[in-house]
Amino acid sequence: MDGFDCDVLVVGGGPTGVTLAALLGRQGVRTIVAEKEPAIFPLPRAAHIDHEGMRILQEAGAADAVMATSRRADRYEFRNARGKVLLRFDGATRIGPGGWPAANMIHQPSVEAALRSALAERAPGSLRCGWEMRSFTEDADGITVTLATPDGEQRLRTRWLVGADGARSPVRKACGTAFEDLGFEEPWLVVDVLVDDPTRLPTANLQICDPARATTCVMMGEGRHRWEFMMLPGETPDEVSDPAFVANLLAPWNVEGAVRIERTAVYTFRARIAERWRRGRVLLAGDAAHQTPPFAGQGMCSGLRDAANLAWKLAAVAQGKADQALLDTYQPERAPNLRATIDMAIMMGRMVCTTSRLGAALRDIKLGVARMLGKLPSGPPAYPPIGTGAIMAGSRGAGSYFPQLVAEDGSRLDEVLGPGVWLIGRETLQESRMAPFAAGLRAWLDHQSAEAVLVRPDRYVFGTGESGVLSAHWQAQMARGYTC
Question: Which domains does the chain carry?
Fold first, then answer.
């Protein structure tokens, strides 16, 4: 093992960490995941994965298992205290650019179980439960990590360390990395229920923008539903978690006898981003690097995007196919997307969390006028493309998200072309395997006025142009000729 126990040690066995490990495992990178808990946390947390997140789970080998227990809501509505619809997003069931339904309501423990199963197939024994990182030291060649394990203290030698260990991240703290506070912090009571009679529950995901108490009501994975209630000034976690208090909050929904409470918990919804996502051989991902309020349903999705962005870069560097400087593109590529995601969540949250009756009335009037003028959005705004980093700047489409086309027989582009870098030119569309997708790919190239496109392993566009030019620029970018 050349003196190293692994190439990458991931601290944290949640969705971000295990997805990263599964993606690395597919590329043959020696990876260990150290998870301090002995088993998956059995209660729900995240509730939503979008089409792009599902595409990442597809590459990780877990998408079909996740879809088997997920559900899709009819729509996403923001209503005022009188029940009037202020804003409505449709199209949750349509197939998004990632090749999967646009919005999927999930049960997080089931997602984590599917990911761990996929990881066990690709890299048996790489997940070490009950292993807690205590400290680490870095030198010029790698990192030595001290861990507490069920068999006593152990030391591992790794080339790279990724902290995917949550909002309280010991890895981030050990790096001395501070958070940038983005100005949103609200305590909410979360009530998760098991559903016995789904006919008595809403089929839409709802945000009730009531200044008396903002409320969220959303689907989750099969057989579950969630309510979230904003806590008011002076209320304590013990007070709002009392069964009688919770029953009073649920009474207006008329669900007594239709649901059973699975758990109640108080969470503080925050918006913040770590100032540095890389320090030497240590990187941060998921909640260790950023936290977003839940109103846009992008918490888990953001961590999955981190994993997809980081996996191919770590693989290229660990396998000697690219210079370490490639890892410096990670935060500049992801942070603008994260800020846009968080800004959208904060915008939604402030619309929901207004406690002033006058402010709520003015909000309703403003949105009503916008509706009459046809200026309300039909869905969440698109996230910005990658503007800087490992892209061929200046070429059309560089940094944009490349769609996963779905053929009439249900086959998906990623399954046909496989992992790694894609160089798709008009001449390759004549290949038999490309036939089901040729029309869509040709239309994409026509839209960009390009002869070819080079697509990165995370399915973002490196650049467009002539095939030879694209290959040369890609090799220069990777510094040591990283190719598919």
Answer: 6-71+104-180+271-337 (3.50.50.60), 385-484 (3.40.30)
